[in-house]
Amino acid sequence: MASKPWNEWSTTLSHLTLGVVSLHAAVSTAQCTNGHLMCAGCFIHLLADARLKEEQATCPNCRCEISKSLCCRNLAVEKAVSELPSECGFCLRQFPRSLLERHQKEECQDRVTQCKYKRIGCPWHGPFHELTVHEAACAHPTKTGNELMEILDEMDQSHRKEMQLYNSIFSLLSFEKIGYTEVQFRPYRTDDFITRLYYETPRFTVLNQTWVLKARVNDSERNPNLSCKRTLSFQLLLKSKVTAPLECSFLLLKGPYDDVKISPVIYHFVFTNESNETDYVPLPIVDSVECNKLLAAKNINLRLFLFQIQK
């Protein structure tokens, strides 16, 4: 069977990479009390949809109630599915699903690869079977020292941007006043004529002040259950009265027992009695799949870090 044309393949590279990473997760199943099966991704999506609509999640086949406690895995089906043929997204050949991940990562001649001179700036990436020909003709090893220095300077600038966040976190850890707490967002709906879903935490105390966190789905979209792309944004509110401006840095991370993927982003705000709530800022969840993991739960559990900036 002919492999996929390179220009067509490259447009779907990110999707194929995601497929390799989540291959084993896709094999997992959930089974309702009547024996109907759902893949893990669809199961989480159904639970998230039900939370957004404030309904009980039901099996799409028999409409019996489903939840993480009511459903179980079917190991026999998962074993059978792992042996079913599945198509490699690169070479289009078929393999048992249990062998596909290894094939796509290590054996496929059409799998994505990069030039060994990437370390000195070569941007080439392409199918593995073209790698030897490319590296033999790659121009980067013959570039002059000055040309390579320009390339390396650009790469250093990109690397410095990536490290800036981590350096900022390390700097915050040296502050005198640091506080953190586990927070639990509970779902509510507005009393407006057009109701909207939002999340809010109970009041909590950090750094001797009282706070509340609010969150909303898709920036208060009326029917987020109709959208496949889902995001969360949050707002930090100071409920105490302060005698002087309170300048803080803060970030939200996943709780200690969750597996949701959240990238750390630091936000800053100066709280006063007149300006006691931040704007809504994005919760940096990796993608909609991870967002559904949060929305599928009865409550959203995260960890808040607060750093008070001393003048």
UniProtKB/TrEMBL annotation:
The keyword Signal applies. InterPro entries: ZFTRAF1, Znf_RING/FYVE/PHD, Znf_TRAF. SUPFAM superfamilies: RING/U-box (SSF57850), TRAF domain-like (SSF49599). Keywords: Metal-binding, Signal, Zinc, Zinc-finger. Residues 1-30 form the signal peptide. PROSITE patterns: ZF_TRAF. A zinc finger (TRAF-type) spans 64-122. One of its GO terms (molecular function) is zinc ion binding. GO terms for cellular component: nucleus. Gene3D superfamilies: Zinc/RING finger domain, C3HC4 (zinc finger). The keyword Zinc applies. Residues 64-122 form the TRAF-type domain. PANTHER family: CYSTEINE AND HISTIDINE RICH 1 (PTHR23059:SF5), CYSTEINE AND HISTIDINE-RICH PROTEIN 1 (PTHR23059). This is Zinc finger TRAF-type containing 1. The gene is LOC112662198.
